[in-house]
Amino acid sequence: MSTQPRKVETTHPAPASGIRYAAPCGLDCGRCVMCSHGKVAESARAIRGVLGPNFARYAAFLQDMQPALVHYPAFAELLDAMAEGCCEGCRDRETPCHASCRVPECTRAHGVDWCGLCPDFPCAETGLPDRLVEKWREANTIIREADVDAWLRELAERPRYL
Predict the structure, then answer these.
(1) Buried-most residue among 64, 75, 123, 136 (CB within 10 A)?
(2) Is the pTM of this model over 0.85?
(3) What contacts 154, CB < 8 A, 6 or more positions away?
């Protein structure tokens, strides 16, 4: 394995391509519930499409058979929010999803795509919330010791929210 950090393409193809976004901190933006073009948004739009624009009327009618449908208005609101998303991913926006996060700015300044490719990794300059520091260290250790492809394969094999 080369000792030189490997530079990886960071531009994101159109959402329809199925390529997931990958944040420079090591989080999987492509399967984040907030990502506008990720798997959750895609799945929510698919559910919305299957149900159609008039399902609220049918939900009210079907409540006798499925009492949980009494909650359909709240579900529809959540589904709409998930279908739209509110984040393009840290690489495509000026501010990271966590206000205190300094990772996107730092990786740009160091000329690397992920913290694990930086000669200063691990550092204490992430600005990440405490609950994310362990995930950051784990992901970027894999990127550093194996490679980006190994990390992406591991992400694909586990649930987004553990």
Answers:
(1) 136
(2) no
(3) 142
Q: Can you tell me the distance from the alpha carbon of 50 to that of 42, in angstroms, rounded to the nearest whole number?
A: 12
Give 137: exposed, middle or buried? Use CB within 10 Å, 0-12, 13-18, 19+: middle
pLDDT for 92 equals 67
End-to-end CA distance of the chain: 30
Count of other CB atoms within 10 angstroms of residue 131: 7
Mean pLDDT of 66-83: 96
Residue 14: CB partners within 8 Å, gap ≥ 6? none
- Quick check: 56 and 72 in contact, CB under 8 A? yes
Query: Which of 87, 78, 77 shows the shortest CA–CA distance to 36?
Result: 87
What are the angstrom distances between the C-alpha of 20 and each of 37, 42, 116, 134, 146?
A: 9, 12, 19, 22, 19
Residue 122: how many other CB atoms lie within 10 Å: 15
Whats the size of the chain, residue-wise? 162
What pLDDT shows up at residue 72? 97
